[in-house]
Amino acid sequence: MTTLRQLRVFVAVVDTGGFAAAGDALGTSQSSVSHTLAALESQVGAALVHRSPVAATAHGARLLPYARATLAAADAFDAATPARTPTTGTIRLAVTPTAGHHLVPELLTLWHAHAPGIRVRLLEGDDVEVAEWLATGAADAAVLVDAPAGTGPVVARDEFRAVTRTDHPLAGTGPVPLVDLVEDPLLVSTAGCEPQVQELHRRAGLPYRPAQRVRELTTLMAMVDAGLGVTLMPSLAGPMLPAGLAMTPLTDTLRRVLTLGAPTTRPRHPLVERILDLTAGHLPPDRPVGPAPA
Q1: Under a CB-based contact definition with an 8 Å cutoff, are residues 259 and 143 in contact?
Q2: Which residue has the higher pLDDT, 209 or 265?
Q3: Contact, 234 vs 160, CB < 8 A?
Q4: Which domains, and CATH codes, for the chain?
Q5: Are 165 and 226 in contact (CB under 8 A)?
């Protein structure tokens, strides 16, 4: 019979990318991790993890969401039992890089001040990954972009802005139409924001022809800083910009609402209920639209 320990080992090996790292995360030895995973694979009759490099097999990828959901439910059950202290434990929070940079320090400070027994483990990914982790149980809560009304408390509002070098002719000139940037090569990130950039071009009646598509925001900013083009980013990313870059508002922009959300298809972890209440009670419902443009 499959045990929760076996599932924890399976998930930890995939998440940490190694047997030794999984052992460290679980407080056990690499040998114990290896034997436990082998026993689980024997029970299911298939390999779940490739050994070199460490990654889920096709069978493992198919079973991984069920393992995550089972563990999330078990952890929530354990936290909800009368024998447990309801304000002590660990929750997993999924965030995007821009939310993580600007919002997470504020949220963690708030939660620690009012519920110091709650520990938060961060998972950082793009918009699609964050939503998937919340749905599958990899995360107990998440900062979601444009979630349905009622999902949870609003933690920020922001908008898309042009990012250029500070010596660009349009830098710091005030709101500019997107058409004024068409002579510059367009650089875009595939890590969650590309659909909004495409929509901005559709609204402006402009063809969407990115010169380069990269995943990492640091790479994107370095390319703009090198004079290889311009980009469009959420205003929450403003504090991440190096000194040589500036944000300029757009005359016709897209605005986002960022919400602290919890699962809707399974019971919430009791500690998630606590941070939702804290957030709703201490953060104003009408959050500012990101930092002021440079």
Answers
A1: yes
A2: 209
A3: yes
A4: 1-83 (1.10.10.10), 160-255 (3.40.190.10)
A5: no
